[in-house]
Amino acid sequence: MVEEITDVVIIGAGPAGLQAAVHAVRKKASVLVLGRLENSSIYSAHVENYLCVDGVTDGAELLRIALAQATRFGAEVWPEDVLHLGQEGELFTVNVESGRQVMARTLILATGTSRKKLKVPGEKELLGRGVSYCVDCDANFYRNAKVAVVGNESAAVDGALTLTKYAAEVHLVCKDMAVGKELGEKLSASSVVVHKGVWAKEILGEKAVSGLLLDSGETLAVDGVFVELGAKGAMELATSIGVLLDTDTFSFIETNKKQETNITGIYAAGDIAGPPWQMAKAVGEGCVAGWEAANHANRIKRMSESA
Q: In this protein, which residues make up the domain named FAD/NAD(P)-binding (predicted)?
């Protein structure tokens, strides 16, 4: 079933996508947001480093407020996953899980990134209660605490070094460390306790993290576990229609200052457009993407009306 043509279709209901919706709909564009709040990386997080947010705020609550704003201004929201993207002339086709197909004048990709998981017991259950995938986001919550970082590469080492500025005790769990000489020397000169040749087996705790069980049988008594295995971009949809990724790591979408991708009419914002993984960046990019996508859609309509 093909729906009527929508000016702006936004894929992703996190901070970038919802901010894009607010700005696009206020430019008098028809806007459809596809996605679920709970799939956003901040849904299970706590926020305290965002401008105008006083103290520690629940990420899920911020998203609910954002969703209410977007819908109040006139955006439509479908809590559905997108299965396929296509292009027909100047229009884009979007197929969703319910079987519906949407035609869009512009697309905004704001799907965030899918963090690589340890896939061990306790990881999912304790997410947001001691388990984190972003040192830069959550380090401040672990002042004078004991923490562990799990990972083999530069992201894990850099995260462990950052945590030494906050935590009382930092452990780095790595099976096979693969970092450059300079970073390795910084690690050696730091207070980080390195556990080489071992890996995480289970994250322990009831209501919050209380320890990390290693496959060697040793248990680290820690208050937090940071999983730093890198981030895998949710790129399959984008690359299927020719959107280009960054040429260095191929892990995020290349955009310009207008959040435009290499394909006219497709924009990207938030984590999918690259680091830093911060809500402030996502919201800023969402603002720009929503504004620009609405302008582009309105230009297309004016041109077709005058033809």
A: 7-286
